[in-house]
Amino acid sequence: MSDERDVEKAYSTTETVAKLRRLADALETGQPFRIQVAGERIRVPKRARFSVEHERGSDEEEVEFQLKWDLADVSPETGDEDTVEL
């Protein structure tokens, strides 16, 4: 069984604004947070690295906001009291 996964989910402008606002609050306060994507809940640790990626092709451009972390650095979850649900 493979742990690899690559999914993309589109949201309305209203949903996107709400998610980004909650994400910004979590990043600003140094809290970990959770997001659910395609039915899977993901816990992002407060030590996640944030980056912006830009791609340009002949007929479109893309900007991606990315959070990355090493799975080996994530401690077992101890509860939701320090987690922001997106």
Q: Structural class, please? A: alpha+beta
State the order of secondary-structure elements, H for helix, E for strand.
HEEEEE
In total, the number of strands is 5
Question: If strands are numbered along the chain, what order do they take across the biggest sheet?
Answer: 2-1-5
What proportion strand? 25-35%
Radius of gyration: 14 Å
Helical residues, percent: 10-25%
Q: Write down the oligomeric state.
A: single chain
Number of domains: 1
Apparent shape = globular
Rounded mean pLDDT score: 82
Give the terminus-to-terminus CA distance.
28 Å
Largest sheet: 3 strands, mixed
Spans of at least 5 consecutive residues whose pLDDT stays below 50 are: 78-86
Q: How many H/I helices? A: 1
Give the SSE map:
Elements lengths: L12 H17 L3 E5 L2 E5 L4 E8 L4 E8 L15 E2 L1
Parallel strand pairs: 1-5
Antiparallel strand pairs: 1-2, 3-4
What would you say this structure looks like, in words?
The chain is of the alpha+beta class. The chain has one domain. It is built from one helix and five strands. The strands form two sheets. The chain has a three-stranded mixed β-sheet, with helices on one face. Strands 3-4 form a two-stranded antiparallel ribbon. A hairpin with a 2-residue loop joins β1 (33-37) and β2 (40-44).
Name the descriptors.
disordered C terminus; 86 residues; two-stranded antiparallel sheet; single chain
Care to give the gist of this entry?
With 86 residues, the protein is α+β, with helices and mostly antiparallel strands.
